[in-house]
């Protein structure tokens, strides 16, 4: 947001005829199996006891990228150390300027979305039922993100990803189809999201030595923002002249989510991103206090860096 130096690239792998089995009633994590296991299936070597191994595939994916990096001559590129539980292979490019690129392996499935998403994507009053039905006909993705139980990762699980739908919504975000087009009326939705992301980004930077900030990420802000769009569907609410009011409303909603310890995943309602087992109460209270301080003092952190 402040400087475009982090990028995500999804590496899609189409997998025909898979079945997914929900892991431990999470709604978000799944074991992946093939409906048939023909010998010709090139992924058969990653199957263990009928389950497609997320850890084995991620290991191989990482190895391939590391080998390819050796062939890049003119740019200074290195692969960052693996982060526990992360589905990404992160490249650090140092020249001509420093940027990091997350390459994420994603299985693409053209089957119906899993049952846990049935009540999710609440865009009916905002983008309309037709749009929702059309979006739900898009493929869904599974990334090798391991479910965490206590301090242990379940290394064979895959997590649902709807980043392509999120991108689609952000690009076509208005009640009126011409919102923010060249000749259309402008709104401040994207500016609110940028400010929310920037706020969290700067707080994480400012308190990088505090473990309370470790669990928070821009996806939490993005999810809260989407819920705000569903709650306030009309373009007139997001008038650019009311940017400060809209931003304040977004901050208020995010603080409320922290306080009640509930932030529903936008696509998987039963998956609570702020549940006690994911982020402890102390961390949520710490972030709340920091955001409250910023709001009460006119966001001094925005001018700090």
From TrEMBL:
Pfam families: Mab-21 (PF03281), Mab-21_C (PF20266)
GO MF assignments: 2',3'-cyclic GMP-AMP synthase activity; chromatin binding; double-stranded DNA binding
InterPro entries named among the record's database cross-references: Mab-21-like_nuc_Trfase, Mab-21_HhH/H2TH-like, MAB21L/cGLR
GO cellular component assignments: cytosol; nucleus; site of double-strand break
UniProt superkingdom: Eukaryota
Entries under SMART domains matching the protein: Mab-21
Protein name as annotated: Cyclic GMP-AMP synthase
Organism name: Jaculus jaculus (Lesser Egyptian jerboa)
Chain segments annotated as coiled-coil in the UniProt record: none
Domain Mab-21-like nucleotidyltransferase: 1-172
Domain Mab-21-like HhH/H2TH-like span(s) in chain numbering: 188-292
GO BP of this protein: activation of innate immune response; cellular response to exogenous dsRNA; DNA damage response; negative regulation of double-strand break repair via homologous recombination; paracrine signaling; positive regulation of defense response to virus by host; positive regulation of type I interferon production
Family: Belongs to the mab-21 family.
PANTHER family registered for this protein in UniProt: CELL FATE DETERMINING PROTEIN MAB21-RELATED (PTHR10656), CYCLIC GMP-AMP SYNTHASE (PTHR10656:SF35)
């Amino acid at each position: 947001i402040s400087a475009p130096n982090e990028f995500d690239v999804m590496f899609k792998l189409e997998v025909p005829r898979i079945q997914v089995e929900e892991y431990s009633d999470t709604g978000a994590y799944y074991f992946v199996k093939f409906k048939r296991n023909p010998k010709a299936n090139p992924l058969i070597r990653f199957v263990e006891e009928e389950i497609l191994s997320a850890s084995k595939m991620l290991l191989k994916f990482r190895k391939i990228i590391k080998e390819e990096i050796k062939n890049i001559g003119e740019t200074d590129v290195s692969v960052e150390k693996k982060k526990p539980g992360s589905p990404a292979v992160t490249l650090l490019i140092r020249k001509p300027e420093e940027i990091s690129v997350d390459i994420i392996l994603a299985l693409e499935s053209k089957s119906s979305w899993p049952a846990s998403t049935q009540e999710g994507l609440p865009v009916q009053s905002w983008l309309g039922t037709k749009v929702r039905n059309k979006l739900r006909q898009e493929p869904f993705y599974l990334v090798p993100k391991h479910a965490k139980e206590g301090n242990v990762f379940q290394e064979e699980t895959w997590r649902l990803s709807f980043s392509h739908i999120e991108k689609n919504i952000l690009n076509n975000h208005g009640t009126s189809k011409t919102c923010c087009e060249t000749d259309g009326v402008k709104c401040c939705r994207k500016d609110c999201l940028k400010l929310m992301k920037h706020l969290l980004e700067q707080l994480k930077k400012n308190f990088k030595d505090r473990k309370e900030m470790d669990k928070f990420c821009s996806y939490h802000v993005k999810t809260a923002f989407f819920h705000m769009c569903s709650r306030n569907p009309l373009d007139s609410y997001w008038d650019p002249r009311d940017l400060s009011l809209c931003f304040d409303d977004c901050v208020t909603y995010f603080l409320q989510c922290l306080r009640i310890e509930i932030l529903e995943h936008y696509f998987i309602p039963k998956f609570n991103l702020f549940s006690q087992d994911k982020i402890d109460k102390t961390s949520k209270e710490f972030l709340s206090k920091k955001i409250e301080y910023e709001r009460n003092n006119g966001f001094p952190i925005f001018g700090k860096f």
